[in-house]
C-alpha cells in the first residue's frame, strides 16, 4: 500500500440514516429532534471555512483514490458522545452509527475501514460495543472522543483498555467535544469565547490525557494498548515530554509502579496523525521535529477529509525528509493495524 489515510470524517446527510439501527424508544427522539437531543458546545466555524459534509461514500472514495489513498479509516463527525448526559441515548447512537458505517461504507467499498465508536462515560456499555464488533472484518480500531469528565488514566476506563488489548484493537481519540455536555471546559482556565480560540487550544486535552495515562500506569497494566491521537498536531510533544521526564526524575516516588522513563511509554504506545501537521519555513526544521518525536514510528498520514481549513493535507507531508515518507504515508499504519487493513470484509 502506498498511502493509508488514518482520519476521514464521514457523515450522514440526515439523521434518518441511522434511525433503522436505533431501538424504537430512541427513534422518535432522533426523527423529531434531528440530532438536537445531543448536548453540544457553542463553538462553530465561520461559514467560509466550513467544509461540505462527506455524505456520499462513492464521492469520498473517488476523491481519496484519485490522490493515491489505498485505505481510509473512518472516524466520523460525531465526536462528543462520551460527554452526553444521557448514557443510554449515547450508547444507542454509538451502536446505530457503527451499524450504518459498516453497512453503508465499509461493506460496499474496499477503500474504507471502520472505527468502533463508543461512549466512554458508561464503560460497561462501551465494552459491550467493542465485543459486538471486535471480530468483524473491516472494523480496525476503537474510537472515543477526547472530551471527558476526567483524565483517561483513571481506573473507570480500564475495562475499555482491557477490551482493546484483548482484541488487539488500537484506541483512537479525536478532538471535538471539549466543552460539551458533562465535559470539563475546553481549557484549564475556563471556556473560550470563539471557535478560533477553542480550536487553537484543543491539543491541551491530549497533553492532559497523555500525561494521565502514563502517570497512572495504564501501559504497565495494558502493555499491548496503542493509542492514536487524531488531529492534534505534533509540535507540542517535545516540550510536554521534556517537562514530563524532568519532573519524573525529581518526584518519581509518587509513581512507583512505573518501570520506565515517561518518554519510553509515549514513543511506544502513542501514535499521532499528520493533519494538521505544523508548517515550517525550512525543510530541515520539520526533519528536526520528526527526529524529536520519533516520527519514523509515531506519525501516520491523515487528511481529516473533507476538512481543509489548514490547507492541503497532502502538501503538508511534501516536505517530509525522505527517511520518514514511507513510514508516515503507510508503514506505521500497516504495523499498527496489521491484517485488519487487508483482511476481506464480511
Describe this structure as you would to a colleague:
Helices cover 41% and strands 10% of the residues. It has 346 residues and is α/β, with parallel strands linked by helices. It has a single domain, classed as TIM Barrel. Helix 3 links the parallel strand 2 and strand 3. The chain is globular and about 55 Å long. It starts with a strand and ends in a 9-residue tail after the last helix. The mean pLDDT is 94.
Key traits:
41% helix, 10% strand, alpha/beta, globular, TIM Barrel, 346 residues, eight-stranded parallel sheet
List the helices and strands and how they pair.
Elements: E1 4-8, H1 24-33, H2 57-66, E2 71-74, H3 87-106, E3 112-117, H4 123-133, E4 139-145, H5 158-167, E5 171-174, H6 195-200, H7 203-215, H8 218-221, E6 227-230, H9 237-251, H10 262-269, E7 270-273, H11 283-292, H12 295-298, E8 299-300, H13 313-316, H14 322-337
Parallel strand pairs: 1-2, 2-3, 3-4, 4-5, 5-6, 6-7, 7-8
Summarize the structure.
The protein is of the alpha/beta class and 346 residues long. Helices cover 41% and strands 10% of the residues. The protein has a single domain (4-341), classed as Metal-dependent hydrolases (TIM Barrel, Alpha-Beta Barrel), CATH 3.20.20.140.
Kindly provide the radius of gyration, computed on alpha-carbon positions and rounded to a whole number of angstroms: 19 Å
Segments where pLDDT lies below 50 for 5+ residues? none
- Which percent bin holds the helix content? 40-55%
Sheet with the most strands: spatial strand order: 1-2-3-4-5-6-7-8
Secondary structure: number of strands: 8
Task: Write the element-wise H/E pattern from the N-terminal end onward.
Answer: EHHEHEHEHEHHHEHHEHHEHH
**Structural domain tally:** 1
Number of helices: 14
CATH architecture: Alpha-Beta Barrel
SS-based class:
alpha/beta
The dominant shape is globular
User: Biggest sheet, in brief?
Assistant: 8 strands, parallel
- Can you tell me the CATH superfamily? Metal-dependent hydrolases
**CATH fold call:** TIM Barrel
Gap between N and C termini: 21 Å
> Tell me, what is the CATH class?
Alpha Beta
Tell me what portion of residues adopts beta-strand conformation: 5-15%
